[in-house]
Design a protein that fits this description.
By secondary structure, this protein is an all-alpha fold. It has 3 helices and no strands.
Amino acid sequence: MNEATSKSFQKWAVTREKGKWRFVLQTGVLAWGVPMFVIMTFFLNRRPDTPLSIGMIAISALIWAIGGACYGLAMWTVSERKYRKFLESIKSAESSSTNAS
């Protein structure tokens, strides 16, 4: 296992200690959902001939917040699976080296 991979998993160990829902909020909703809301609502999907209403902005914010939460949960799940495989590989390597001795 290379040093970069090991550092990546060490960083994930610290992140996961802070909790799943904090990760979902920070990574999914704030770091992904909010920028997507701003870009998609005010720049890409905006029609010049149609003014934005408060209702449409609120609906868009809700949709992107939910999308961000889903993104955060997906990233948590993927990262956890990789981390658990990493831990299993370490245990397996330790037990095989112990058995070989």
